[in-house]
Amino acid sequence: MSGTFLDVASVAALPGDLPTSLTYWPGYLLAFIAEHATERFERQLAPFGVKTRHASVLVVIDGEGPMSQRALCRRLRIDKSPMVGVVDDLERLGLAERRRSASDRRVQDIHLSKRGRAVLRRVVEIAEQENDLTFGGLDEAERAQLHALLLRVAEASDRD
What we know:
3-stranded antiparallel β-sheet; globular; disordered N terminus
């Protein structure tokens, strides 16, 4: 196969459940890694009633401050209808709350609750543990290089 990304020795070293014929495509490998990491992450989050999409909202609100559902949709590239459900879930779990915006009374901003901040701290700890598990085969320099490369690819993809 021309244009391969892995040599035969590398493919032979991959786990048995990876179809060798697909391992030549970095996109497949990214999806495979993401699916397995997400499954592990969500198993750890289950006691809190939180899934990855909830964790993403909590992290963004914590990092960027309260914002409207519309702004969250844009930031996370989630359609309006699913976002309503995610925010409803977070309110039901007592992790976030809708409050009238100080700048526009017609808009409700999403805020983290005290419990939401506590759960967020645990979510971040779990995410760090999962990152260590997922990328444990790489040293710090390799992790930094992989992160920089993935960020470049993500930023280039975002322009489409």
